[in-house]
User: Fold this.
Amino acid sequence: MKKSRYWTILLILGVSASALITCASAQVPEIAGRIRTMAHRGDYYNAPDNTLASFKLAIESGVDSCEFDVWETSDGHLVLSHDATFTHATKGACNEKVTEMTLAEVRTLDVGAYMGEKWKGTQCPTLDEALELFKNSGCIPVIEIKQFGTEKAISEALHKHGMVLECAIVSFNHVSIRRIQEYCPGIYAYRNGGARKGMTDEEYVQWFVDSQKDCPYKVANPNWSDMKNARTVRLLKEAGFVVSTWIVDDPKLMNELLDAGIDTMTTNRPAVFVDVMKSRELEK
Assistant:
């Protein structure tokens, strides 16, 4: 919608932008309030991403939660990888799709050597192994569904480990979110992303309102390049959204967003984020 047309409609209706926007609800599970600092693929800055070693460092940093990505192998096992292939994780040694490999084949790969000699020989973990690590750790696992159709298998793993209400689910696919909520009633699941496409702050917030009318939890979780400024955060909060963004590694920006009232930020540097939060507590 063009800007001029947008404001013309507001004038005709006789309402302000803020009044138009306040139709979202922020009714979310209790776990949402515990997720403030989120590690991206573990401690991605210091260890191979989506590995148990990376998750252990994230947990040790004191971060509230940790995001990672799940795919299903050709023989039905859930494993962790950000990409559809292991090209990045193996420095090009394996370009085959995760979904076309067996678990045994995945286990032969070295997904740590790209980060240096220290991590050589690191294996790709399964979802079961990750859930075992996070259970009772104090760090909430945040699972990103990368492969449509894996929702039932993921839900079965969560039920098996008793972690349906002790994790969060994100996906760019709205249908995946609805499916996981059917399999796991009450789970904290929400949609990723939200391309700005040249919209003003007001138009962007209204887009979230319109696009999430059928979402049980009103969560705005765009990339920081789409969020762009602290004013966007404030308007989303006023509209009743839980507001999250990714990826934020700069302490100055972290503080600006926290000042604006953001609820959650995902970072490649969890220890830095935790230090920022501790410093803010000391300043109160």
Q: What stands out?
A: The first helix runs from residue 3 to 13. The CA atoms of residues 79 and 126 lie 4 Å apart. The first strand starts at residue 37 and ends at 40.
